[in-house]
Design goal:
Alpha-Beta Plaits; 10% strand; 10 helices; 3-stranded mixed beta sheet; 64% helix; Alpha-lytic protease prodomain-like
Length: 305
C-alpha cells in the first residue's frame, strides 16, 4: 500500500530554467571579453577568471540539458524518468571546477619565478566588466539556489567569479601603483584556492544524493515518532529516506497497525493520515507505506529499524 504523487510537477532546476538561460547568455558574453583581455594584457589572473566563467557556462548548459531530460515522463524501464540527470550534471560541474582550480594553481606556480609584464589598462577594464556581469547573474540566481543543486552550483560559481574579478581588479591596481607584477600571479593562486573548497562542497552534496543518504533537514527519529503518533499505528520499521533529485525527497516504511484497524477497514484512513503528517511536517510528499499486522513480523527475518 502506498501514498504519494506523480512526477509531473517537474524538478527544482526545471522550475528556474529561465534564470539559467539569462545567466548563460551573460556569462558567455563576459568570457569572450575576458579571454581577449587576458591574451592582450598577458594577465594569468584574468585568464583564470575567464576560464572559471567558461566552466560556469558549461555547467549551466549541462544543467539546462539535464533539466530538459529530467522533465521527460517516467517509463516502465525508468520509473523515475530521468530526474537523476540533474544530479549527474551537478557531478560534472563539480569535477570541472576542481580541474580548473588545479590548472590555475599549477600555472601560477610556474610563473612565479618569471612573471610576465601585464597591460593593466586592458586587465582592469575586462575585470570590471566581469565583476558587473557576475553581480547581475548572482542576483538572478539567488532566488532558486536554495532548492536545486544545479542552481546552487551555478550560484556558487558565479559568487567565485565575482570574488575572482575583484581579486583581478586589486592585482591590477597593485601593479599600476607599485609595479609588483607578481600580484597577478598571487591573484591567480587565490582564485584557484577559492575554487577548490566550493568544488569539494558541491561534490559531497552530489555524492550524498547518489549514495541515497538521508536528506538534510529530515531526522528519522523524529519521523518515526510522528508515524507512531498516528491513530492505529503500533510500530514502524524498515524506514528509509533519500533524495531522488534536488527538491524531490522520498520516504518508505513498513508500518505495523493494530488488528482492529485492519478488521474495521480503516487502512485507507491510516494511509491518508500518514501522508498528511509527513507532507506537513517534513515536506516529503513522495511516500510509500506498507501496512501490516503485528503477526506479519515472522515473515520478515531481515527487517531492521
Amino acid at each position: 500500500m502506498g501514498a504519494g504523487h506523480d512526477h509531473a510537477h517537474g524538478t527544482a532546476t526545471g522550475r528556474h530554467r529561465r534564470r539559467l538561460v539569462v545567466v548563460l547568455a551573460i556569462t558567455l558574453s563576459v568570457v569572450g571579453v575576458q579571454v581577449i583581455g587576458g591574451l592582450v594584457s598577458g594577465s594569468l589572473a584574468l585568464l583564470a577568471d575567464a576560464g572559471h566563467m567558461l566552466t560556469d557556462a558549461t555547467g549551466v548548459a549541462i544543467a539546462l540539458t539535464a533539466a530538459a531530460l529530467a522533465g521527460r515522463p517516467a517509463t516502465k524501464a525508468r520509473t523515475y524518468g530521468l530526474q537523476r540527470a540533474e544530479i549527474l550534471a551537478a557531478l560534472a560541474n563539480a569535477l570541472l571546477l576542481g580541474g580548473l582550480a588545479v590548472w590555475v594553481i599549477t600555472e601560477a606556480v610556474q610563473r612565479w619565478a618569471d612573471p610576465p609584464e601585464v597591460a593593466t589598462g586592458v586587465m582592469l577594464a575586462a575585470a570590471a566588466a566581469g565583476a558587473v556581469a557576475n553581480l547581475v547573474s548572482l542576483l538572478i540566481l539567488r532566488g532558486g539556489q536554495s532548492v536545486s543543486l544545479n542552481l546552487r552550483g551555478a550560484y556558487l560559481e558565479v559568487l567565485g567569479d565575482l570574488i575572482g574579478s575583484v581579486a583581478v581588479i586589486v592585482a591590477g591596481v597593485v601593479i599600476v601603483t607599485t609595479g609588483y607584477t607578481r600580484a597577478d600571479v598571487i591573484a591567480s593562486i587565490l582564485i584557484g584556492v577559492f575554487i577548490l573548497p566550493r568544488a569539494w562542497s558541491l561534490l559531497r552534496e552530489v555524492v550524498d544524493v547518489l549514495l541515497e543518504a538521508t536528506p538534510k533537514g529530515i531526522d528519522l527519529d523524529d519521523v518515526r515518532s510522528h508515524i507512531k503518533g498516528v491513530d492505529g499505528v503500533v510500530d514502524v520499521h524498515d524506514l528509509h529516506a533519500w533524495t531522488i533529485t534536488s527538491g524531490v525527497p522520498a520516504l518508505s516504511a513498513h508500518v505495523v497497525v493494530d488488528q482492529d484497524c485492519l478488521d474495521q477497514g480503516r487502512s485507507g484512513q491510516v494511509l491518508d493520515a500518514l501522508a498528511e503528517c509527513l507532507g506537513g511536517h517534513f515536506d516529503t510528499e513522495h511516500c510509500t507505506f506498507q501496512l501490516e499486522p503485528a503477526s506479519h513480523a515472522q515473515h520478515e527475518p531481515a527487517r531492521h529499524d
